[in-house]
Amino acid sequence: MDPVTIDTTKISTIKKKPQTALEKLEDTGLIHTVLSAKDRKGLILLTTVDQIFNWARLSSLWPVTSGLACCAIEMMGVAMAHHDIARFGMEIFRASPRQADLMFVAGTVTKRMAPRVKQLYEMMPEPKWVISVGSCSNTGGPYHESYSVLKGVDLIIPVDVYIPGCPPRPEAWLYGVIQLREKIKNEGYGAKWGINK
Amino acid sequence: MNPAEELKQALPGSVMSTGMQVDKPLAVIKKEELLAAAAKVKEMGFDHLSVITGIDYTDRFEVIYNLFSYKKKENLVLKVILDHNNPEVDSLTSLWKGANWLERETYDLVGIKFAGHPNLVRILLPEGWNGHPLRKDYDMDTEQFVTIGEDGEDIVSTDGSNLLRRK
Protein backbone atom coordinates (compact mmCIF):
# COMPACT_ATOMS: atom_id res chain seq x y z
CA MET A 1 0.00 0.00 0.00
CA ASP A 2 1.25 3.42 -0.84
CA PRO A 3 1.72 5.78 2.06
CA VAL A 4 -0.77 8.62 2.11
CA THR A 5 0.79 11.79 0.95
CA ILE A 6 -0.51 15.12 2.15
CA ASP A 7 -0.15 18.22 0.11
CA THR A 8 0.73 20.74 2.79
CA THR A 9 0.16 23.73 0.54
CA LYS A 10 -3.57 22.95 0.42
CA ILE A 11 -4.09 23.07 4.19
CA SER A 12 -5.42 26.47 5.07
CA THR A 13 -7.34 25.75 8.27
CA ILE A 14 -4.32 26.08 10.57
CA LYS A 15 -4.61 29.39 12.30
CA LYS A 16 -1.71 31.71 11.85
CA LYS A 17 0.09 32.43 15.07
CA PRO A 18 -0.14 36.10 16.04
CA GLN A 19 3.20 37.76 15.48
CA THR A 20 2.96 41.47 16.14
CA ALA A 21 1.66 43.12 19.27
CA LEU A 22 -1.37 44.29 17.31
CA GLU A 23 -2.24 40.77 16.19
CA LYS A 24 -1.76 39.42 19.68
CA LEU A 25 -4.16 41.99 21.10
CA GLU A 26 -6.75 41.20 18.45
CA ASP A 27 -6.30 37.51 19.10
CA THR A 28 -7.52 37.87 22.69
CA GLY A 29 -10.96 38.72 21.32
CA LEU A 30 -11.40 41.39 23.96
CA ILE A 31 -10.19 44.44 22.10
CA HIS A 32 -12.82 45.82 19.77
CA THR A 33 -10.94 48.54 17.94
CA VAL A 34 -7.26 48.86 17.52
CA LEU A 35 -5.82 51.46 15.22
CA SER A 36 -2.20 51.75 14.38
CA ALA A 37 -0.69 55.17 13.90
CA LYS A 38 1.95 54.78 11.28
CA ASP A 39 3.76 58.00 11.79
CA ARG A 40 4.06 57.42 15.55
CA LYS A 41 5.13 53.79 15.38
CA GLY A 42 2.69 52.82 18.08
CA LEU A 43 -0.83 51.66 18.72
CA ILE A 44 -3.91 53.57 19.62
CA LEU A 45 -6.51 51.57 21.51
CA LEU A 46 -10.02 52.80 20.98
CA THR A 47 -11.77 50.75 23.58
CA THR A 48 -12.57 50.76 27.24
CA VAL A 49 -9.75 49.97 29.53
CA ASP A 50 -12.02 47.49 31.33
CA GLN A 51 -11.42 44.75 28.88
CA ILE A 52 -7.66 44.81 29.20
CA PHE A 53 -7.92 44.88 32.96
CA ASN A 54 -10.46 42.07 32.98
CA TRP A 55 -8.39 39.99 30.57
CA ALA A 56 -5.36 40.36 32.83
CA ARG A 57 -7.36 39.58 35.94
CA LEU A 58 -9.16 36.51 34.70
CA SER A 59 -6.04 35.05 33.16
CA SER A 60 -4.11 34.75 36.39
CA LEU A 61 -6.41 34.30 39.35
CA TRP A 62 -4.38 33.33 42.38
CA PRO A 63 -6.36 31.45 45.00
CA VAL A 64 -5.55 31.59 48.68
CA THR A 65 -4.47 28.32 50.28
CA SER A 66 -7.32 27.57 52.62
CA GLY A 67 -9.37 24.42 52.99
CA LEU A 68 -11.99 23.82 55.63
CA ALA A 69 -13.13 20.22 55.18
CA CYS A 70 -13.29 17.36 52.69
CA CYS A 71 -13.86 19.66 49.67
CA ALA A 72 -10.26 20.75 50.22
CA ILE A 73 -9.18 17.22 49.29
CA GLU A 74 -11.00 17.74 46.00
CA MET A 75 -9.21 21.08 45.66
CA MET A 76 -5.91 19.19 45.76
CA GLY A 77 -7.24 16.93 43.01
CA VAL A 78 -8.13 19.97 40.92
CA ALA A 79 -4.67 21.41 41.40
CA MET A 80 -2.81 18.20 40.54
CA ALA A 81 -1.71 17.15 37.06
CA HIS A 82 -4.79 15.13 36.09
CA HIS A 83 -7.23 18.05 36.14
CA ASP A 84 -4.58 20.74 36.17
CA ILE A 85 -5.96 24.08 37.26
CA ALA A 86 -2.75 25.61 35.83
CA ARG A 87 -4.53 25.71 32.48
CA PHE A 88 -6.42 28.71 33.84
CA GLY A 89 -3.32 30.38 35.22
CA MET A 90 -4.28 29.56 38.81
CA GLU A 91 -1.72 26.98 39.81
CA ILE A 92 -0.12 29.29 42.35
CA PHE A 93 -2.03 28.80 45.59
CA ARG A 94 -0.74 31.68 47.64
CA ALA A 95 0.07 31.03 51.25
CA SER A 96 -0.79 34.62 52.17
CA PRO A 97 -4.18 36.24 51.54
CA ARG A 98 -2.31 39.50 50.80
CA GLN A 99 -1.13 38.04 47.50
CA ALA A 100 -4.35 36.29 46.50
CA ASP A 101 -7.40 37.54 44.65
CA LEU A 102 -9.63 34.46 44.79
CA MET A 103 -10.86 32.46 47.74
CA PHE A 104 -12.28 28.97 47.51
CA VAL A 105 -14.48 28.38 50.54
CA ALA A 106 -13.95 24.63 50.39
CA GLY A 107 -15.85 22.90 53.14
CA THR A 108 -18.01 23.22 56.22
CA VAL A 109 -17.97 26.69 57.74
CA THR A 110 -18.46 26.07 61.44
CA LYS A 111 -19.57 28.84 63.78
CA ARG A 112 -16.14 28.87 65.32
CA MET A 113 -14.36 29.07 61.95
CA ALA A 114 -16.70 31.73 60.51
CA PRO A 115 -14.93 34.81 61.97
CA ARG A 116 -11.61 33.42 60.75
CA VAL A 117 -12.96 32.95 57.23
CA LYS A 118 -14.31 36.49 57.28
CA GLN A 119 -10.97 37.81 58.49
CA LEU A 120 -9.17 35.93 55.73
CA TYR A 121 -11.51 37.51 53.16
CA GLU A 122 -10.99 40.97 54.57
CA MET A 123 -7.22 40.55 54.43
CA MET A 124 -7.30 39.98 50.66
CA PRO A 125 -6.68 43.08 48.50
CA GLU A 126 -9.25 44.31 45.99
CA PRO A 127 -10.28 43.14 43.44
CA LYS A 128 -11.25 39.81 44.96
CA TRP A 129 -13.66 37.03 44.21
CA VAL A 130 -15.10 34.14 46.21
CA ILE A 131 -16.17 30.70 44.99
CA SER A 132 -18.26 28.73 47.46
CA VAL A 133 -17.65 25.03 46.93
CA GLY A 134 -19.89 22.24 48.12
CA SER A 135 -23.26 21.95 49.83
CA CYS A 136 -21.90 22.85 53.26
CA SER A 137 -20.57 26.26 52.37
CA ASN A 138 -23.48 26.98 50.00
CA THR A 139 -26.34 26.40 52.43
CA GLY A 140 -25.08 24.38 55.37
CA GLY A 141 -25.87 21.19 53.48
CA PRO A 142 -26.31 18.12 55.68
CA TYR A 143 -25.56 20.27 58.74
CA HIS A 144 -28.31 22.78 58.07
CA GLU A 145 -30.17 21.76 61.24
CA SER A 146 -27.00 21.79 63.31
CA TYR A 147 -26.10 23.98 66.26
CA SER A 148 -22.50 24.50 65.18
CA VAL A 149 -22.55 25.14 61.41
CA LEU A 150 -23.21 28.40 59.59
CA LYS A 151 -26.13 28.17 57.16
CA GLY A 152 -24.20 29.27 54.09
CA VAL A 153 -20.99 31.25 53.84
CA ASP A 154 -22.85 34.02 51.98
CA LEU A 155 -24.20 35.09 55.36
CA ILE A 156 -20.78 36.53 56.16
CA ILE A 157 -18.99 37.23 52.84
CA PRO A 158 -20.24 37.96 49.29
CA VAL A 159 -20.02 34.94 46.97
CA ASP A 160 -19.59 35.12 43.18
CA VAL A 161 -20.04 31.50 42.12
CA TYR A 162 -21.65 28.58 43.94
CA ILE A 163 -20.58 25.05 43.01
CA PRO A 164 -23.01 22.37 44.22
CA GLY A 165 -21.94 18.86 45.15
CA CYS A 166 -20.84 16.90 48.16
CA PRO A 167 -18.03 17.27 47.32
CA PRO A 168 -18.21 18.48 43.68
CA ARG A 169 -16.14 16.53 41.18
CA PRO A 170 -13.11 18.35 39.74
CA GLU A 171 -14.97 18.79 36.43
CA ALA A 172 -17.73 20.67 38.27
CA TRP A 173 -15.08 22.68 40.03
CA LEU A 174 -13.46 23.69 36.74
CA TYR A 175 -16.87 24.56 35.31
CA GLY A 176 -17.35 26.91 38.26
CA VAL A 177 -13.97 28.48 37.55
CA ILE A 178 -14.98 29.03 33.92
CA GLN A 179 -18.21 30.66 35.08
CA LEU A 180 -16.21 33.03 37.26
CA ARG A 181 -13.98 33.89 34.29
CA GLU A 182 -17.08 34.72 32.26
CA LYS A 183 -18.28 36.91 35.08
CA ILE A 184 -15.00 38.78 35.35
CA LYS A 185 -14.94 39.27 31.58
CA ASN A 186 -18.18 41.23 31.76
CA GLU A 187 -17.32 43.30 34.79
CA GLY A 188 -16.98 47.03 34.45
CA TYR A 189 -13.95 48.88 35.72
CA GLY A 190 -14.67 49.72 39.27
CA ALA A 191 -17.61 47.35 39.41
CA LYS A 192 -16.40 46.28 42.83
CA TRP A 193 -16.62 49.87 44.02
CA GLY A 194 -20.02 50.45 42.53
CA ILE A 195 -18.84 53.08 40.02
CA ASN A 196 -19.97 51.25 36.87
CA LYS A 197 -22.92 48.90 36.69
CA MET B 1 -16.74 -16.82 80.59
CA ASN B 2 -16.94 -13.33 79.15
CA PRO B 3 -15.27 -10.43 80.96
CA ALA B 4 -18.60 -8.95 82.13
CA GLU B 5 -19.49 -12.17 83.97
CA GLU B 6 -15.96 -12.30 85.32
CA LEU B 7 -16.36 -8.79 86.70
CA LYS B 8 -19.68 -9.71 88.30
CA GLN B 9 -18.10 -12.69 90.07
CA ALA B 10 -15.25 -10.54 91.35
CA LEU B 11 -17.42 -7.62 92.48
CA PRO B 12 -20.98 -8.84 92.97
CA GLY B 13 -21.92 -5.76 94.98
CA SER B 14 -21.14 -3.17 92.32
CA VAL B 15 -22.35 -4.83 89.12
CA MET B 16 -26.10 -4.37 88.74
CA SER B 17 -26.57 -6.53 85.65
CA THR B 18 -24.73 -8.03 82.73
CA GLY B 19 -25.66 -8.58 79.12
CA MET B 20 -24.56 -7.82 75.60
CA GLN B 21 -24.21 -4.43 73.91
CA VAL B 22 -24.58 -5.47 70.25
CA ASP B 23 -21.75 -8.05 70.25
CA LYS B 24 -19.73 -6.72 73.16
CA PRO B 25 -20.12 -7.89 76.77
CA LEU B 26 -21.82 -5.23 78.87
CA ALA B 27 -21.77 -4.63 82.61
CA VAL B 28 -24.02 -2.04 84.25
CA ILE B 29 -22.21 -0.58 87.26
CA LYS B 30 -23.55 1.30 90.28
CA LYS B 31 -22.39 4.89 89.86
CA GLU B 32 -20.87 5.08 93.36
CA GLU B 33 -18.78 1.97 92.68
CA LEU B 34 -17.52 2.98 89.23
CA LEU B 35 -13.96 3.87 90.23
CA ALA B 36 -13.45 0.60 92.14
CA ALA B 37 -14.97 -1.46 89.32
CA ALA B 38 -12.86 0.34 86.72
CA ALA B 39 -9.70 -0.36 88.73
CA LYS B 40 -10.64 -4.05 88.78
CA VAL B 41 -11.31 -3.95 85.02
CA LYS B 42 -7.90 -2.45 84.42
CA GLU B 43 -6.35 -5.24 86.49
CA MET B 44 -8.12 -7.71 84.23
CA GLY B 45 -6.03 -6.39 81.33
CA PHE B 46 -8.27 -3.76 79.68
CA ASP B 47 -5.55 -1.25 78.98
CA HIS B 48 -7.32 0.93 76.40
CA LEU B 49 -10.32 3.18 77.00
CA SER B 50 -11.40 3.85 73.43
CA VAL B 51 -14.50 6.02 73.77
CA ILE B 52 -16.86 7.53 76.32
CA THR B 53 -20.44 8.27 75.28
CA GLY B 54 -23.13 10.17 77.11
CA ILE B 55 -26.80 9.71 76.22
CA ASP B 56 -29.80 11.75 77.30
CA TYR B 57 -32.94 9.60 77.75
CA THR B 58 -34.94 12.59 79.13
CA ASP B 59 -35.59 10.72 82.43
CA ARG B 60 -31.98 9.64 82.99
CA PHE B 61 -28.47 9.97 81.63
CA GLU B 62 -26.30 7.03 80.70
CA VAL B 63 -22.54 7.11 80.35
CA ILE B 64 -20.99 4.28 78.38
CA TYR B 65 -17.32 3.34 78.51
CA ASN B 66 -15.94 1.21 75.67
CA LEU B 67 -12.81 -0.66 76.73
CA PHE B 68 -10.41 -2.83 74.80
CA SER B 69 -7.62 -5.17 75.82
CA TYR B 70 -4.63 -5.26 73.52
CA LYS B 71 -3.31 -8.38 75.29
CA LYS B 72 -6.47 -10.52 75.13
CA LYS B 73 -8.03 -8.80 72.09
CA GLU B 74 -11.33 -8.47 73.97
CA ASN B 75 -13.97 -5.78 74.30
CA LEU B 76 -15.90 -4.75 77.38
CA VAL B 77 -18.58 -2.11 77.80
CA LEU B 78 -19.28 -0.46 81.15
CA LYS B 79 -22.42 1.56 81.70
CA VAL B 80 -23.55 3.82 84.54
CA ILE B 81 -27.02 5.29 84.90
CA LEU B 82 -27.19 8.81 86.29
CA ASP B 83 -29.88 11.03 87.72
CA HIS B 84 -31.28 13.51 85.19
CA ASN B 85 -31.26 16.49 87.53
CA ASN B 86 -27.66 16.22 88.69
CA PRO B 87 -25.61 13.97 86.40
CA GLU B 88 -22.30 13.45 88.15
CA VAL B 89 -19.93 10.50 88.17
CA ASP B 90 -16.32 9.84 89.20
CA SER B 91 -13.62 10.64 86.67
CA LEU B 92 -11.47 7.80 85.33
CA THR B 93 -8.46 9.99 84.49
CA SER B 94 -6.50 8.42 87.35
CA LEU B 95 -6.71 5.02 85.61
CA TRP B 96 -6.62 5.86 81.90
CA LYS B 97 -4.93 9.11 80.80
CA GLY B 98 -7.03 9.11 77.63
CA ALA B 99 -10.16 9.63 79.69
CA ASN B 100 -9.17 13.28 80.13
CA TRP B 101 -10.28 14.55 76.72
CA LEU B 102 -13.09 12.00 76.33
CA GLU B 103 -14.66 13.19 79.57
CA ARG B 104 -14.22 16.81 78.57
CA GLU B 105 -16.05 16.05 75.32
CA THR B 106 -18.89 14.33 77.19
CA TYR B 107 -19.06 17.30 79.56
CA ASP B 108 -19.04 19.73 76.64
CA LEU B 109 -21.80 18.14 74.55
CA VAL B 110 -23.98 16.30 77.09
CA GLY B 111 -23.20 18.20 80.27
CA ILE B 112 -22.21 15.36 82.55
CA LYS B 113 -19.91 16.40 85.41
CA PHE B 114 -16.94 14.21 86.21
CA ALA B 115 -15.87 14.52 89.83
CA GLY B 116 -12.11 14.61 90.29
CA HIS B 117 -11.31 15.59 86.71
CA PRO B 118 -8.15 17.77 86.61
CA ASN B 119 -9.38 20.23 83.95
CA LEU B 120 -13.10 19.97 83.29
CA VAL B 121 -13.65 22.73 80.70
CA ARG B 122 -15.22 22.67 77.23
CA ILE B 123 -13.08 21.07 74.55
CA LEU B 124 -14.94 21.63 71.24
CA LEU B 125 -17.27 24.55 71.78
CA PRO B 126 -15.87 27.87 72.96
CA GLU B 127 -16.17 28.94 76.59
CA GLY B 128 -19.37 30.83 77.19
CA TRP B 129 -21.54 28.68 74.93
CA ASN B 130 -25.02 28.43 76.35
CA GLY B 131 -26.28 24.89 76.89
CA HIS B 132 -25.08 21.43 76.01
CA PRO B 133 -26.13 20.67 72.42
CA LEU B 134 -26.64 16.90 72.58
CA ARG B 135 -29.21 17.20 75.37
CA LYS B 136 -32.79 16.68 74.34
CA ASP B 137 -33.87 19.99 75.90
CA TYR B 138 -31.23 22.06 74.06
CA ASP B 139 -32.71 25.23 72.61
CA MET B 140 -32.21 25.04 68.83
CA ASP B 141 -34.17 28.23 68.12
CA THR B 142 -31.65 30.73 69.47
CA GLU B 143 -28.61 30.81 67.21
CA GLN B 144 -25.29 31.50 68.87
CA PHE B 145 -22.42 33.16 67.00
CA VAL B 146 -18.71 33.29 67.68
CA THR B 147 -16.53 36.34 67.14
CA ILE B 148 -12.85 36.88 67.84
CA GLY B 149 -11.86 39.25 70.62
CA GLU B 150 -8.85 41.54 70.92
CA ASP B 151 -6.53 38.82 72.19
CA GLY B 152 -7.77 36.14 69.81
CA GLU B 153 -10.19 34.65 72.29
CA ASP B 154 -13.63 33.41 71.24
CA ILE B 155 -16.62 35.49 72.26
CA VAL B 156 -20.04 33.83 72.11
CA SER B 157 -23.17 35.89 71.63
CA THR B 158 -26.63 35.56 70.15
CA ASP B 159 -26.08 38.87 68.36
CA GLY B 160 -24.36 38.19 65.03
CA SER B 161 -24.24 41.79 63.80
CA ASN B 162 -20.41 41.86 63.86
CA LEU B 163 -20.28 38.76 61.73
CA LEU B 164 -23.29 38.68 59.42
CA ARG B 165 -23.64 40.85 56.32
CA ARG B 166 -27.32 41.49 56.92
CA LYS B 167 -29.78 40.55 59.59
From TrEMBL, chain A:
GO BP term, pick one: aerobic respiration
Molecular-function GO terms, alphabetical: 4 iron, 4 sulfur cluster binding; metal ion binding; NADH dehydrogenase (ubiquinone) activity; oxidoreductase activity; quinone binding
Keywords for this protein: 4Fe-4S, Cell membrane, Iron, Iron-sulfur, Membrane, Metal-binding, NAD, Oxidoreductase, Translocase, Transport
Enzyme Commission numbers on file: 1.6.5.3
Domain NADH:ubiquinone oxidoreductase-like 20kDa subunit residues, every copy: 70-179
Family matches, as Gene3D superfamilies: 3.40.50.12280
Superkingdom per UniProt: Archaea
Keyword Amino-acid biosynthesis: no
GO CC list: respiratory chain complex I
Similarity-based family: Belongs to the complex I 20 kDa subunit family.
Identification of the protein by name: NADH-quinone oxidoreductase, B subunit
TrEMBL record, chain B:
Domain NADH:ubiquinone oxidoreductase 30kDa subunit: 28-143
UniProt keyword terms in alphabetical order: Oxidoreductase, Transport
Coiled-coil segments on the chain, per record: none
Pfam families, alphabetized: Complex1_30kDa
A GO MF label: oxidoreductase activity, acting on NAD(P)H
Gene3D superfamilies documented for this protein: NADH:ubiquinone oxidoreductase, 30kDa subunit
E.C. code: 1.6.5.3
Transmembrane regions: none
Superkingdom field: Archaea
Alphabetical list of InterPro entries matching this protein: NADH_DH_suC (IPR010218), NADH_quin_OxRdtase_su_C/D-like (IPR037232), NADH_UbQ_OxRdtase_30kDa_su (IPR001268)
Family assignment from sequence similarity: Belongs to the complex I 30 kDa subunit family.
Protein name: NADH/F420H2 dehydrogenase, subunit C
Organism: Candidatus Methanoperedens nitratireducens
Taxon lineage: Archaea, Methanobacteriati, Methanobacteriota, Stenosarchaea group, Methanomicrobia
